[in-house]
Amino acid sequence: MERSKYCQELCDALERYGKTWTDRSNACVEHIYFKSRGNWVSVLYGDDIRGFPQKFLVWEMSNYSYSPRVMDVEKIIDKYF
Fold it and tell me: What is the pTM assigned to this prediction?
């Protein structure tokens, strides 16, 4: 599956900052996991995921907290890098 422009920006930033990450994308949604400060972060992207075009649905998997947030690439970089 070819990555969208927005997901490719995130993957490029992960590479640039040397983050450990994995791609779990499928035909319906782009799904990237990466490590930040010892915790895994799950990022979903789709054409119109939950009514937020060009945004990512982000879960930080720490302290058993799975509450999602909607963010763009810049906010993800600011918070997790």
Answer: 0.75
